[in-house]
Design a protein that fits this description.
heterodimer, A: alpha/beta, Enzyme I, Chain A, domain 2, TIM Barrel, 8-stranded parallel β-barrel, 20 helices, 16 strands, about 45% helix, about 15% strand, globular, B: Histidine-containing Protein, Chain: A, 4-stranded antiparallel beta sheet, 4 strands
C-alpha cells in the first residue's frame, strides 16, 4: 500500500474510482475585441443567472448562500470587469483576459498576511474558471482530484454524487472547505503533486491510499462495515428520547443562534433548545422591534412543534458589545455591566424583549431565562420589570402568557442560592464556560492561563455537585461546552442534570454515551470522583480506570 | 474624511464586504475606503478585500454623500 498525506479537511472512510479534473482552456486565436467582449458578456450573464439560482436554493445554509452572494458581487465588480475589458481591447481572447484579470486580483489578495484573506483569492479563481469553462464530468460515485477545488465545484459535484475530494492546493479556511464540511464529504488537500499521475480505485481515511494488498483491503472493508454499523446505531437514536442504561430520562437538547441551526439540530435528533442566544438580534445597526422579535421567536417555536424551547434574554457585554447598548469603556468588561446587569441599565430595550416573549408565549410553550444572575435581588428586579411588562401588555389589550422562568448559573455566587431560586423560578441552566472562567479566575481567551481554565479540577466539580443538592424542585439543565464533554456526560447525568444542551453534531454521540451509562445509585462513584485531589486523578476516575 | 478602527475579530471578511459594497453601490457618486497609503473604490468587492482590513486597523471613508459616509463608518465599526 502507498499512503499520501495532506491536510485532511474532512475525515471520512470511503473509496472509489479516481477522476482527475484538468481544466482545459480553449486557446483559439482571439477574434475582434468586439466579438470577444460579446462572448464575455454572454458568459457573464449566464453565470450570473446560475449564481442567483444557486444562492436561492433553499437547501443551502445561510452561510453557504452568503458565499454565493459574495461570488455574485465579485462577478459584477466594476473594476474586475474594467480590467477584463482592458485585456480584451489589448487583443486577448476573452478566456485569457478573464484569467489574466483574475490572476492580478488574486495575487493582490494572496499578498495579504492573513490566512483567511488569502483563502479568498480562491473565490476569484473560481469565478474566472466558471466564466471560461463548462464542466461536464461524470463524477457519480467517484473521488474527484483537481489542482484546486473551488466552492462552486463542491456544490455541483456533491449534487452529482461525488464521494470525496482531493486537491493539491487548498486551505482549512477556504469556502470550498467550509462547504465540504457542511456536506460531510471527505476532503484532503495539500497533497503532493505526484498524485496527479494516479489512476484506478483510491481509498481514503485520514490519508489517501492506493495499491492495497489483499489483507489491507479486507481490513479496510471491515472498517467500512464498522463505520456503517455505528452510523446505523446512531441513526436509530435520532427519534429516541435521551435516557440512560437504567432508564433515567435525560433530555438531549441543543444550543442555537438561528433557525438554520435549529433545523439542522432537529434533523439530528435534538429534543429541544436548551439555549437560544438572542443577543445577535441586538448587535445589528438598528435594534429589533417587538414585532420583528415576535416573528423570529414564533418561527423557532413553530419549528420546534411543542419541544422544549428556552429563550435567553439578551446577553450583551463582555466580549459581545453593541454600540447603541454600550455603556462606556470598562477596565474589566467580563466583570462589568454585562448580561442581566446591562438589561437593567437599558430597561426599555429589555422590556421590549420581555413583551415579545410574553406575547409569543400565549401561542407556543416557551421558557425564558436570564443571564449573569448574581444574587436574589437580581431575580426580584427581573420579576418587577416582568410585572410592569405584563401590566403594559394588559393595557394594550394584547394576549400574553408568563412563560416558565429560569436562571442561568454562571456566576459562582449563584451556586450557593439554589434553595432560594427554587422558590422563585422553575428551572436553572448551568452556563459552564463563564462559570468555569469565573470560578478559576482564568480568562478563557488567554492561552497563557489555559491550564487554570480546567473543567476537571475537583474544586469546580465539587461546587457544582454540592449546589445540586439544594436544587430540589428545580429542573436542572446545562448549556455550555461541557455539556458535550464525553468524559463528563456520565458524571453530569449521575449528579442530576436532566437536560444537556449540546452542539447539533454531538447530539447522537451524547445520546449514545448516556445509553452506555447508569444514573441510579451512583453516589459512591460520584464521591470517588469528587474526592480526587488533582485534575489528572479526576480524569482517571471519570474513565473508571 | 471619516476614520474608524475595526473591532470585528475577523476583519472585513467576505460577508461584511458584500454588505458594504451593496451599501456603497446604492450611491451614484464616488465612495472610497482608505487603509494606509491605499485608496480603493468601495463599490469593488475585490479591491476592498485586497486591502486586507483586519481587526485593529484604522480605516478612512470618503464619499461625495456625507450621509453615506456616516452609514459606512457606522457599519465598519459595528460589523462582526
Amino acid at each position: 500500500m502507498k499512503r499520501y498525506q495532506g491536510l485532511t479537511i474532512v475525515t471520512g472512510r470511503t473509496f472509489g474510482p479516481l477522476i482527475i479534473d484538468q481544466v482545459e482552456i480553449d486557446d483559439s486565436q482571439a477574434k475582434s475585441p468586439k466579438e470577444e467582449w460579446q462572448k464575455f458578456s454572454d458568459a457573464k450573464n449566464e453565470l450570473s443567472r446560475e449564481l442567483e439560482q444557486r444562492s436561492k436554493d433553499e437547501s443551502l445554509t445561510s452561510e453557504t448562500a452568503a458565499i454565493f452572494e459574495a461570488h455574485q458581487l465579485m462577478l459584477e465588480d466594476p473594476e474586475f470587469i474594467e480590467e477584463i475589458k482592458r485585456h480584451i481591447e489589448s487583443g486577448l481572447a476573452y478566456e485569457k483576459a478573464v484569467l489574466q484579470a483574475a490572476q492580478d486580483f488574486s495575487d493582490m489578495m494572496s499578498a495579504i498576511e492573513d490566512e483567511y484573506m488569502q483563502a479568498r483569492a480562491a473565490d476569484i479563481r473560481d469565478i474566472a474558471q466558471q466564466l471560461i469553462t463548462k464542466q461536464d464530468l461524470d463524477v457519480a460515485g467517484k473521488i474527484v482530484l483537481k489542482d484546486e477545488i473551488f466552492p462552486s465545484e463542491v456544490i455541483e459535484y456533491s449534487k452529482a454524487g461525488a464521494k470525496g475530494f482531493l486537491s493539491l492546493k487548498g486551505s482549512a479556511t477556504s469556502h470550498a472547505s467550509i462547504l465540504a464540511k457542511n456536506a460531510g464529504l471527505p476532503f484532503i488537500t495539500n497533497l503532493p503533486p505526484e498524485v496527479m499521475t494516479l489512476s484506478g480505485t483510491v481509498y481514503l481515511d485520514e490519508d489517501l491510499m492506493v495499491d492495497l494488498s489483499e489483507a489491507e483491503l479486507a481490513e479496510f472493508n471491515q472498517a467500512l462495515q464498522r463505520d456503517e454499523a455505528t452510523r446505523q446505531r446512531l441513526a436509530k437514536l435520532i427519534d429516541q428520547p435521551g435516557h440512560t442504561a437504567d432508564g433515567v430520562k435525560r433530555q438531549v437538547s441543543t444550543n442555537i443562534s438561528s433557525l438554520d441551526d435549529l433545523l439542522q439540530a432537529l434533523e439530528l435528533g435534538a429534543e429541544g433548545v436548551a439555549l437560544f442566544r438572542t443577543e445577535f438580534l441586538f448587535m445589528q445597526p438598528t435594534l429589533p422591534t417587538r414585532e420583528e422579535q415576535k416573528e423570529l421567536y414564533r418561527s423557532l417555536a413553530k419549528a420546534l412543534n411543542g419541544k422544549s424551547f428556552i429563550i435567553r434574554t439578551m446577553d450583551l457585554g463582555g466580549d459581545k458589545v453593541n454600540r447603541e447598548l454600550d455603556s462606556g469603556p470598562e477596565d474589566n468588561p467580563f466583570l462589568g455591566l454585562r448580561g442581566i446587569r446591562l438589561s437593567f441599565d437599558k430597561i426599555q430595550v429589555f422590556k421590549r424583549q420581555l413583551k415579545a416573549i410574553l406575547e409569543v408565549a400565549s401561542e407556543y410553550p416557551i421558557k425564558m431565562m436570564f443571564p449573569m444572575v448574581t444574587n436574589l435581588e437580581d431575580v426580584y428586579q427581573v420579576k418587577e420589570i416582568l410585572a410592569q411588562a405584563e401590566a403594559e401588555l394588559k393595557d394594550e389589550g394584547r394576549a400574553y402568557e408568563t412563560p416558565m422562568l429560569g436562571v442561568m448559573i454562571e456566576v459562582p455566587s449563584a451556586l450557593a442560592l439554589m434553595k432560594e431560586f427554587s422558590d422563585e423560578v422553575d428551572f436553572v441552566s448551568f452556563g459552564t464556560n463563564d462559570l468555569l472562567q469565573y470560578t478559576t479566575a482564568s480568562d478563557r481567551m488567554n492561552s497563557r492561563v489555559s491550564r487554570w481554565y480546567d473543567p476537571y479540577q475537583p474544586a469546580f466539580l465539587r461546587l457544582i455537585a454540592r449546589s445540586l443538592e439544594d436544587a430540589k424542585g428545580l429542573h436542572v439543565g446545562m448549556c455550555g461546552d461541557l455539556a458535550a464533554d464525553e468524559l463528563l456526560i456520565p458524571f453530569w447525568s449521575a449528579i442530576g442534570f436532566e437536560e444537556l444542551g449540546v452542539p447539533a453534531a454531538r447530539i447522537l454521540k451524547t445520546k449514545q454515551i448516556l445509553l452506555e451509562t447508569r444514573s441510579r445509585d451512583q453516589a459512591e462513584w460520584v464521591d470517588y470522583v469528587l474526592s480526587a485531589k488533582t485534575s489528572q486523578e479526576v480524569i482517571e476516575r471519570l474513565r473508571r480506570d | 474624511m471619516r476614520t474608524v478602527t475595526i473591532q470585528a475579530k475577523n476583519g472585513l471578511h467576505a460577508r461584511p464586504a458584500a454588505e458594504l459594497v451593496k451599501l456603497a453601490a446604492a450611491s451614484e457618486g464616488d465612495v472610497t475606503i482608505i487603509k494606509g497609503d491605499k485608496e480603493v473604490s468601495a463599490k469593488s468587492i475585490m479591491r476592498l478585500m485586497s486591502l486586507g482590513i483586519l481587526q485593529g486597523d484604522e480605516v478612512g471613508i470618503k464619499a461625495d454623500d456625507a450621509e453615506l459616509a456616516d452609514t459606512l463608518a457606522d457599519f465598519l465599526e459595528k460589523m462582526e
